[in-house]
Amino acid sequence: MLSKYIPLWPEQASTVAGHMDLLYVFLVLNTIFFTVLVAVMVVAFSIKFRKSKHPVAVQIEGSVPLEIFWSAVPLGIAMVIFVWAAVLYFHLMRAPRESMEVYITGKQWMWKMQHPTGQREINQLHVPVNTNVRLTMISQDVIHSFFVPEFRIKHDVLPGRYTYAWFNATKPGTYHIFCTEYCGTKHSGMIGEVIVMEPAAYQLWLSGSTGGSLAQEGERQFASLGCVTCHSGQPGARGPNLEGVFGSNVKISDGRSVTADENYVRESILNPQAKIVAGYGPIMPTFAGQISEETLIQLVAFVKSKQGTGAKAGGQATPGGKQ
Amino acid sequence: MSAAAASGHLVAGHEVMPEENYLSVDHSLKSWLLTVDHKRICILYLLTITFMFFIGGAFATMVRLELLTPAGDLMQSDTYNKAFTMHAVFMIFFFLVPSIPATLGNFLLPLAIGAKDVAFPRLNLLSWYIFVIGASFAVIAMITGGVDTGWTLYTPFSTNYSNTNVMMTAVGILIAGFSSILTGLNFIVTIHRMRCPGMSWFRLPLFVWATYATSLIQVLGTPVLAITLVLVALERGFHIGIFDPALGGDPVLFQHMFWFYSHPAVYIMILPGMGVISEVITCFSHKRIFGYKAVAFSSVAIAVFGFLVWAHHMFVAGISLYAGLVFSFISFLVAIPSAIKTFNWSATLYKGSVRWDTPMLYVFGFLGLFTIGGLTGLFLAALGLDIHLTDTYFVVAHFHYVMVGGMVLAYLCGIHYWWPKITGKMYPELPAKAAAIIVFLGFNLTFFPQFILGYLGMPRRYHAYPAEWQVMNVLSSAGASILAIGFLLPMVYLVWSLKFGKVAGPNPWQATGLEWETSSPPPEHNFHETPVVTTEPYHYGEKEREI
Amino acid sequence: MHKHHFDTFDQQKDASSFGMWVFLVQEIMFFGGLFVAYLVYRHQYYMAFGTSSATLRVDLGLFNTIVLIGSSLTMAIAVNAAQRSLQKRLIAFLLATMALGATFLGVKVIEYTEKFEKREVPGANFCFNPQGAPCKGVSHEEEKTPDLIQRYLNGRFGKLPGLDKAAEHGAEATTHAEAGEAAAPEPGVPGEATERQRSMPGSEVYFSLYFAMTGMHALHMIVGIGLMVWLLYWATKGLYSAEYYTPIENFGLYWHFVDIVWIFLFPLLYLINRHIGGHH
Ligand code: HEA
Ligand code: HEA
Ligand code: CUA
Ligand SMILES: [Cu+2]
């Protein structure tokens, strides 16, 4: 095909890449159609009715049916594009329930990956092929953006709030990671690679690591930061029992209830006063400025690991940012 | 004043220059710096923004030179980051936003509605001074080290991390913004209150409608940019915490406020161009516009709906999915008025009597390039597709197609079309045609490869890039050097024409419109007696019948 | 006596008042940006906004509201006087408006200084911690309004009564806070949290908005008073009369607009959730 000689799109290496390219091709055809239409009209009329051949112009006021026609047809086409693209957007912005989790922290100018199994990487991301991978991302300084063109995924990585992206890689191989939100001097150097592996090779890679899982690391922090003193889980403890909190609907003191997702847990640690759990006083101190983003991720993973069987997996189904 | 009288002048063939015109009344520098004549203020702006365009162009040259090779070898990454930032800051805020409104708008608006001047002439001069002060800030910021935030000034990078001249630049843009607001205000009042007898709303030339729509955006949008920049400056200078996530602020709020201005601002950067196209295409088809009301109302529709789509720049910035849905939907709606205009322009050519003078070549170029630019905007407005395309070179290509292929071409078109009116001299046709063709070809070679690069995934604002993308980048840089020649040529022959150009006469194009019924260059007070309008706009057919 | 480019005097008058209205629309958009930011954060930091708001002096705010409404009244009378060619009355009421405007700004100075003393000004020195450890160098005792004003009249701006010792500590705390800022520029990096970082989350946003909003409003007042000096000059020269009073009328519109902005600012900044402040 033509794309052998002049590449027209990046490799299709994820489940959505084909859908994305199809929509793209549709829009390209649409563009060609209208551009050629306009070009033909302009060139044909201005040659056919050039002054030497057509010295006296025929005055035409306009035509209401034509106006309606050429508003309605583009509108119709636009609506097709809108719906099609919206469906794709919802598909891409909401991770499937069954996903492997990876946590990513962006910082000027590198990507730090944390796997639930405890592995940490910089500017590299090892994942198994044919598996849903959900990325929970945060920045510790300015805004970055995580982009893998071969997977057709991208999402901004914000300071102060988790954002999400997901993919399912279909071909083993090595793919680009780019930072696509301008973030300072080495923005163009904030690159890396995703290494997609066959399941067996991936298992091998996993086993090469040492140390505990992310949640275990979080548990250690939970103890050393003194969280357990209040969240001991005993009846009569000063703070609520965190067992089964993640993913559940938490009643808060002003009567609203919120779903406990990653951002809720993070906020609970950094700004405990924002949403006070009903029945408790505003006594939890803020840990803002004292815990790094990576430790926060461990704490979140720990709280998440205590997601009991009773908890609804609601937090998982609606990533993509709530406001 | 009837059209016959004007063409009567022409019959005489070579026109004698009227004794006194706005240029010749007084030659002293003081008379220029203290002028309140809208026509002279046009010239002041013309000189200033041309200078700004070349500063912006010099930075574009740096960008394209660096991107010749995949490695970031020509300059430091910081230098590159400053280059594209200063490129955009000068091109957008100090060139394209004021380009047509402040030059052709200033010159033509009063003439086109039969007024002696704009409603507030002294305010008009003040606007120019404010603009110059703002531009000076930007130039000083440039000389003392530049700024590296991207023209979008995203927080918290701009407020807490960049150690370049963000403050100075922001203040420069803020000041230039007030100039823009005052110009818009002046024009709105002028159009409402200064029309000559008989000049009803539906007899206004379409350029005036377009200017009116532009002014609405300037008055309603720019203040929001102003307050946003004030907050950025306060945050940077005094460490207050409105957008700083470390203090609980929301950096995405900054983006909302920035785009609330800057999306409508892209229509500030196209509507006046659309107005020029409407005037020129009727003149060189010698035919009234197809669907006058549709074209007029679509300008206003673009201005109004343009305020409701800002978050289409933020589809992956962390807005809610449903907000994305709404903003995408309205983005598609706002494309419809542009479609209406495009088709009406094409239909205007039908059964016309088409001439191929230079301004018309620019019209052809505009129609093709704006259509491509606009249609590729649809790719970006399409939610799912934008995930892949946003912040890649596809976006860069899109906006250069609309801004350079659209607005800059329309600007050159208008400059050529009204050059005889402004200076009283004709430009030389041959080099002008050559320049138009060079611009068209160079432009496509520069920016078409960027669409492909964008879909391949090349991120924008990249100083170095993977080697597999070099071919396209070399093509693009080659195109840019051709484009540069195309932009430099008019500088030469237009200046040349001031001395050696043929005398133009009041109406060299046999155009309709009040500006063509006074002498070229117009007298100081535009008209010797207040005109009275008795005909529809673009009454092209009637002229022949009279003769 | 209309300018040359207008056909009639009426057209000129019409154009300038229309221009003034367009200008005010522009002003609405300008302040609109601030109000939107306020609403967003008010929603996000509901509690913090209530708590922070409780530190403002409602008595002074109310006083200023009355002063400003009074100045609108005097301005309206001034416009009326101009329309009826009542030269002396015009001058008198312009002066009265200026005096009231200056009073407003004076009270604002008192309020601002108090915020500086209490470290409730955004920036490196910021500290607001109603629940946790009290901010160094700050007295949390409420000062009675008459005492406060008396202190300002005595020219003692910098210090809280009977807290001279603590104030010295305050100076120290400031340098500490700055050093802390410089040492830990990267947010999210663990370490000893500064007083600023330990402050109630969201409170700094509130105070930032408080200063930005009232600051922009005060700036408009200052510009207004400057314009009045100009108007006053021409009024004494007898420029304005029943035939020509457009500048006075337009300025009146501006002044009323600035007044209206305050009418929104006062409840949003001073009066939200007074009860939240109660329980600390
Ligand atoms: C003159 C300036 C200008 C103009 C006129 C436009 C016009 C449009 N733009 Fe563009 N845009 C920019 C300047 C402009 N833009 C800039 C500067 C940026 C990047 C800023 C930055 O990040 O630095 C940008 C970015 C940008 C984005 C964000 C991309 C991203 O960052 O992810 C989007 C997304 O929706 C968008 C959409 C549109 C649309 C839908 C139009 C529409 O108005 C186009 C309408 C026109 C047509 C559609 C063509 C004519 C119609 C026909 C021939 C009929 C056929 C029509 C249909 C089938 C509907 N633009
Ligand atoms: C009005 C708007 C406008 C105009 C006219 C242009 C004109 C051009 N632009 Fe630009 N551009 C923007 C607005 C504009 N641009 C914006 C908003 C951005 C985004 C920035 C950001 O990301 O923040 C951008 C970004 C941008 C990039 C992407 C940079 C990046 O993301 O890393 C590129 C790359 O090719 C580019 C190229 C060009 C070129 C080749 C031209 C050419 O058309 C210019 C041709 C003109 C000349 C070349 C002038 C001729 C004069 C000389 C040659 C004199 C030279 C003198 C000396 C050297 C002393 N522009
Ligand atoms: Cu990180 Cu760009
Ligand atoms: Cu936009």
Task: Describe the secondary-structure layout.
The complex is a heterotrimer of chains A (323), B (547) and C (280).
Chain A: H1 2-5, H2 17-48, H3 64-93, E1 100-107, E2 110-114, E3 120-122, E4 124-128, E5 132-139, E6 144-148, E7 153-157, E8 163-168, E9 173-179, E10 192-197, H4 199-207, H5 214-224, H6 227-230, E11 249-251, E12 257-259, H7 262-270, H8 293-305, H9 314-317
Parallel strand pairs in A: 1-5, 4-10
Antiparallel strand pairs in A: 1-2, 2-3, 5-8, 6-7, 6-9, 9-10, 11-12
Chain B: H1 3-11, H2 29-33, H3 38-66, H4 77-112, H5 121-143, H6 157-161, H7 166-193, H8 206-238, H9 251-268, H10 271-285, H11 292-305, H12 321-349, H13 358-381, H14 383-389, H15 393-423, H16 429-456, H17 470-500, H18 540-546
Helix pairs in contact in B: 3-4, 3-5, 3-17, 4-5, 4-7, 4-8, 4-15, 5-7, 7-8, 8-9, 8-10, 8-11, 10-12, 10-13, 10-15, 11-12, 12-13, 13-15, 13-16, 15-16, 16-17
Chain C: H1 9-44, H2 46-53, H3 58-83, H4 87-117, H5 145-153, H6 164-183, H7 195-198, H8 203-236, H9 246-271, H10 274-278
Helix pairs in contact in C: 1-8, 1-9, 3-4, 3-9, 4-8, 8-9
The structure holds heme-A (2 copies), dinuclear copper ion and copper (II) ion.
Radius of gyration of chain B from the CA trace? 23 Å
Q: Please tally the β strands of chain A and state the result.
A: 12
State the helicity of chain A in percent bands: 25-40%
Q: State the helicity of chain B in percent bands.
A: 55-70%
Most extensive interface: A-B, 91 and 96 residues
Q: Order of helices and strands of chain A, N to C?
A: HHHEEEEEEEEEEHHHEEHHH
Number of helices of chain A: 9
CATH architecture of the largest domain in chain A: Orthogonal Bundle
The largest β sheet of chain B comes out as: none
The span between the termini of chain B is: 16 Å
Shape type of chain B: globular
Shape of chain A: elongated
Would you identify the CATH architecture of chain B? Up-down Bundle
Order of helix and strand elements from N to C terminus of chain B = HHHHHHHHHHHHHHHHHH
Total domains of chain B: 1
